[in-house]
Amino acid sequence: xxxxxxxxxxxxxxxxxxxxxxxxxxxxxxxxxxxxxxxxxxxxxxxxxxxxxxxxxxxxxxxxxxxxxxxxxxxxxxxxxxxxxxxxxxxxxxxxxxxxxxxxxxxxxxxxxxxxxxxxxxxxxxxxxxxxxxxxxxxxxxxxxxxxxxxxxxxxxxxxxxxxxxxxxxxxxxxxxxxxxxxxxxxxxxxxxxxxxxxxxxxxxxxxxxxxxxxxxxxxxxxxxxxxxxxxxxxxxxxxxxxxxxxxxxxxxxxxxxxxxxxxxxxxxxxxxxxxxxxxxxxxxxxxxxxxxxxxxxxxxxxxxxxxxxxxxxxxxxxxxxxxxxxxxxxxxxxxxxxxxxxxxxxxxxxxxxxxxxxxxxxxxxxxxxxxxxxxxxxxxxxxxxxxxxxxxxxxxxxxxxxxxxxxxxxxxxxxxxxxxxxxxxxxxxxxxxxxxxxxxxxxxxxxxxxxxxxxxxxxxxxxxxxxxxxxxxxxxxxxxxxxxxxxxxxxxxxxxxxxxxxxxxxxxxxxxxxxxxxxxxxxxxxxxxxxxxxxxxxxxxxxxxxxxxxxxxxxxxxxxxxxxxxxxxxxxxxxxxxxxxxxxxxxxxxxxxxxxxxxxxxxxxxxxxxxxxxxxxxxxxxxxxxxxxxxxxxxxxxxxxxxxxxxxxxxxxxxxxxxxxxxxxxxxxxxxxxxxxxxxxxxxxxxxxxxxxxxxxxxxxxxxxxxxxxxxxxxxxxxxxxxxxxxxxxxxxxxxxxxxxxxxxxxxxxxxxxxxxxxxxxxxxxxxxxxxxxxxxxxxxxxxxxxxxxxxxxxxxxxxxxxxxxxxxxxxxxxxxxxxxxxxxxxxxxxxxxxxxxxxxxxxxxxxxxxxxxxxxxxxxxxxxxxxxxxxxxxxxxxxxxxxxxxxxxxxxxxxxxxxxxxxxxxxxxxxxxxxxxxxxxxxxxxxxxxxxxxxxxxxxxxxxxxxxxxxxxxxxxxxxxxxxxxxxxxxxxxxxxxxxxxxxxxxxxxxxxxxxxxxxxxxxxxxxxxxxxxxxxxxxxxxxxxxxxxxxxxxxxxxxxxxxxxxxxxxxxxxxxxxxxxxxxxxxxxxxxxxxxxxxxxxxxxxxxxxxxxxxxxxxxxxxxxxxxxxxxxxxxxxxxxxxxxxxxxxxxxxxxxxxxxxxxxxxxxxxxxxxxxxxxxxxxxxxxxxxxxxxxxxxxxxxxxxxxxxxxxxxxxxxxxxxxxxxxxxxxxxxxxxxxxxxxxxxxxxxxxxxxxxxxxxxxxxxxxxxxxxxxxxxxxxxxxxxxxxxxxxxxxxxxxxxxxxxxxxxxxxxxxxxxxxxxxxxxxxxxxxxxxxxxxxxxxxxxxxxxxxxxxxxxxxxxxxxxxxxxxxxxxxxxxxxxxxxxxxxxxxxxxxxxxxxxxxxxxxxxxxxxxxxxxxxxxxxxxxxxxxxxxxxxxxxxxxxxxxxxxxxxxxxxxxxxxxxxxxxxxxxxxxxxxxxxxxxxxxxxxxxxxxxxxxxxxxxxxxxxxxxxxxxxxxxxxxxxxxxxxxxxxxxxxxxxxxxxxxxxxxxxxxxxxxxxxxxxxxxxxxxxxxxxxxxxxxxxxxxxxxxxxxxxxxxxxxxxxxxxxxxxxxxxxxxxxxxxxxxxxxxxxxxxxxxxxxxxxxxxxxxxxxxxxxxxxxxxxxxxxxxxxxxxxxxxxxxxxxxxxxxxxxxxxxxxxxxxxxxxxxxxxxxxxxxxxxxxxxxxxxxxxxxxxxxxxxxxxxxxxxxxxxxxxxxxxxxxxxxxxxxxxxxxxxxxxxxxxxxxxxxxxxxxxxxxxxxxxxxxxxxxxxxxxxxxxxxxxxxxxxxxxxxxxxxxxxxxxxxxxxxxxxxxxxxxxxxxxxxxxxxxxxxxxxxxxxxxxxxxxxxxxxxxxxxxxxxxxxxxxxxxxxxxx
Length: 1904
Fold this sequence. Notes:
By secondary structure, the chain is an alpha+beta fold. Helix content is about 40%, strand content about 15%. It has 72 helices and 48 strands. The strands form 13 sheets. Strands 16-15-20-19-18-17 form a 6-stranded mixed beta sheet.
């Protein structure tokens, strides 16, 4: 039997046979394309030509009329690249004008494309997006996966993301190839291009395109010349055809049609020096003849692209007739595209979606199909054709090449030039040992030529080796199993690996060619005999009529395959003489065979091994054997394993053992244990029973065989057997002579000399499998093999080791195959072989005890778990940080055949440890390292619990206080889903977050949409949970419902007068309604994600009223009263802005949607103008195409221009990107631009140049502020707003630059601003604010003193009181740090003269004084106070500073009382109202976003005041205050950065419009610039389990400043955070939630990204805790309950209540099934109590992952007590757990963190320890000591004690008997002597105490 390989012609059975039809073919028939073509036929011809598909039409019409069979082609590739996903085929099918891409297990259409002209080729290509074009960029850059469709005149590219590109082709393309870098084009050359004359160079033949938007550029090649100097030139040789191109490695194979040779080139990026070499040729006087000056190349191409080739050319017509191009289908390229010869290639940033075709400079060499042979045209162009190039020269710029091919290898020149030996198929394959081959099939010679190649050591180049020829008709690689299929000319299908033949491939259902010929009678084949296998000859002679061989049905992996179309009755391809014609479409291990009758079959080749165990063992053996031997071994194994009717999954291992042992020289038939292998009845020819006898009756031997089978032994040991009391059968030992015979090994076999090495690596695999709890079965199988080998190699230590692991499997006696001394000489003992068996458990145990250990041997790539465990223990227990950093650790010894350094380095690099900045302790180091190596929780769960404990301990450490910036993998590993979700969301693009409310659109229909429906109720109800203030704000700010007009009809009023009265009242109320939208925009800021398919809903501005009691409608349009014209124009503008500001910056919006929102009615144009401005403010306007912006501006609609100018400028804040020429100052334009638009343009300039201190702009603006009214400005009333705008703009440009205005000292800005030549009344506000902004926060006293309020009455009379407000404000902003939040400071701004003489407004009498103008004084007083208050608002904006709030609130109350005071008329109610509004705004700024109730009450009170002085402007101010108070629904606050202050100065300018169309002093549109100051600062904790917002306690630490020390503050989130630059760190505090620290000292980026994504901070409730909502006081938590009844805490714990405290489904079901008491419990009660207390422990200590470990330990102790331990691994684990808790490193950790909860219950471990000790001591007393003595003295002992003895040895670490004699323990007399001798054995004292009686020679039972 052992030589059954030699007898059989090896055959490999292919499985999974299916008939193959390209999926696309069928789909094409039903695709609607054919219909379109018929419709096109019906169109009149004129329309046909004008339609866009003109080029392809002629062709397509012909296709309709002539129904010839379409030419089709398809290609397949592997789909499903994600790891763990089942791989499937992807198909790209081309026919006619269609490309169909299908994929999936059962193919389904993924995309189908139809183009205008016939498709010449379709392919997949990945383009690199990165701008960096260096080689390095290609390894990591992101790719754009595309599908490219080549037509005759253009190439279409469609990316998976949905982008479409079209590039027109400047020449006829013969072929296009996908490369690593992009596309490679081969120009098709017409056969009659004459060689060029001296002045002209040949045109390149190869071109590349690196991205759909890049240019097509020629390739250069670098080839070594004879003298070694290499030359760089364009690829111009027409004889060179590409036959193959591979992306990895990036090589090209070409065939030279003249020399008939194949060459290989490497394809790479051009280096700079090569680029220069090509481009400089023109400058080196004499150039070689075939390399013409390159600029003439571009000139040549250019001249063609102009289409100026003269018709005079005699060859012209000839060439166009004979060009093989489809010139019919393309009338001319020029008619399609304007030939702009020098249009620069569009930058990649322009998305193709913007509708611009990419004419990527292609026209530079537009050789359309009409100019097929360009060179001659240009030569015959004119007599002096040389001047032609000089004539064109100025225009040309050279085309820079991007890719280069570098010569690597050319095949040897043969004697006979084989014409037409071009390779028809080329592929790269690698053999089973990883050697790569480049194979090319030369069909004319029927040869497959295979060239070896490999990477050089430094990985920079490929080295090609020898060439081998294989006779073949066709071939294809089978990459998954590193082989290739070769179709021999005889028709046989043979499998090769590299160039080694493995065996014939046999295909069930296809007759083998040799048989078919001999069998004259075709007979229909049934499924049974559709499989033929070679059978022993004796059988063949039996019946001659069955020449077609029968064989059993193969094990079909899936019975459903039987019903496949394959086995239909008509047996499609069983007719006589079907043979395999060719092989195509290899994907992984599937390949299609084309049969001679035209049908196709797809077959799957079997894998090398299916079971994990066999795969691992094969890998290990392959790793250790020399290459040639490994190779032979794998080939043999493959042919045995894949023979027809091969093994199923289970018996694969048995087959492997037999195959391996045969190769080692064993006779597996004579070995008892391999002989009994049960092959599940598959009578495969591999292990056919030797004595197959014809008798049907059976015999005794069969019975014996059965009794000895594994199956029988399993049944005997089955529980059922015992319970039925069946006595075991006496098995007559199989023929005794078998056993007693001395078996020997055959030393001539392949692997004999390598047995020790193989044994050692298999032992390492065994140790590796012990670290995976799921591989138990595999270990059992492996032990049998290892024990046999260990016995035969006489390795006692190993046998002892296996015995201790599996006492019941390893019998003491067994068959030994003797290996005599002579044979031992042949054996090769490798250097790494150790006599002591490496044991991973032992290694870990020694580390825990702190003993020295030799490095642990390790097989790279195979024993990865062992490596991981060793290194993590070294790091965490031994505390050696370098263990995971060094490349080669000194805890591991790598095993290798020869010192292959390079490989080792490359292996290690995968695990190089990147230092994470925030890793402090060892535990963190370990966790971060493990996550980097790719270790996951699932891996941790499969580690045995004792080994996993140190890792879990580290994880437990880290879980308490992780760093917020750890990557997602680390957070998952430590079980902090809150953090991992945060990390994962952080990587997602900004989109909808958890909190965006998805209100179904149905809700708005009942109530009129007031524009506030999309606010997130959930979060707002958490922030303001006590009252309904949000509803109130909504009521105050809505403008979509009619207002109540309440007018009492006095008797004297006539009805008509009453109606007028009502309408006048309505007009008053409308002043308020029109002011509301600005505030509403603030309230709903960024709260909505629009649906891209629906227009944005804009609530209508309702200016009607309803009069009670009858609810009659009151309307302003009745004509009874005069209504100001255009009254609503600005109101609806504001309404549009408010609607647009709802859109969150993260929304997905594109140019098309913005245009789609354009209203149909002209009266809504103002709203749309506002909407555009809003889009600019939230950053979406940058998406609007420049074309559309220009379009809108030229329409000349005033509002639209204002909105656009401000919007675009806001979107480009501070970028200096002036894309709109309309932003020029008006003096430079001759056009008549509306005044407001000029104002907007000037402010726009300020925004775009904000903070840049741009010299020219500042100069222009400075002049604009005080420009004397020129002729055109004579009658202008609104000059003030223009001057103010120029001032604001100047301030923005030089924002905060103060005295360091570089290069502007000569402008003398401050003096200019204070100049006295001009009308100060007009220019003062602008100049003042400009100074304030330029010197903002500079604390510059000299400038500030200019702005002091005048302190004499004389001077006071010169200043408008209003301006004092601005001057005070400006002065305070400059002296930023002096602002203090108290009323004393506010008053200190008032000059003494005013303070002393100003009336207190509450007095009744007016003091009389002649020289003082009381009016002036009191007005000055209130305005100065208001200015100081406003500066307070700026200083503390968004800070919720309590003292600032109290101070401002006091002044607001004061102003309210002044208003009603008797002598308010002195100051003037208007002035008081203004000041009140200013103070209210300041108050709102301080409390921005907080929704403070006191401020809300003030606003509500002022909302109700509608008569008297209350005009539109005051309402505007009050509702802006209300909006700021609830900014963004409480999610936003204001910032105090310079840019924010500038924006707020524009928005809150303290002069309010008198009526709704008033823009005289300040442009109303600027009120919306507050958006630029708003920043998201709301932090919303979201419970990671329920995904809902919740409360959580935050601790915020402020950095220390000059005003206060570093302080901590506790906030209950959701809350607005203070400005981030003030903070040091934020921490989610326990005990409810897991702690989480965000450290801002490292940078605020992380927190900013959280806040910008709706502020979602994931938090995780700790086990046993309830949320604040459910349990506000914390009295219901699990720990709180236990405090009450300390004594019986576990009893008090009711398992039913657990669901309130944990969401872990595993714990819930554990409680459900294991902890609920049932009726009659009996002794189970104790178990239940244990489980309940364990569960309680896990929940309260936050270690649910320890539950399985507790249970496993308990089970193990119980099993040991019942004496049922059949393997000792669990005991090992308990031992490791105990050792871990007593290890030094753990004790030290406990001392450093005494507060930390214990990781395992302190009471549980001693109990476990005690029970194990008791059980083992009882055994020792009950006769175990005799057994132990026998073991130690090396005598046989009884079988029944096997397992307990092993348990004792393992638990007490008793050394093997071989160590004892060396110490000489036997002769010891006293315990002390024993102790001394055992010191070197490292044996624990407790074990020695138990052994002492035996060793001291008085074996009486000892009583402890």
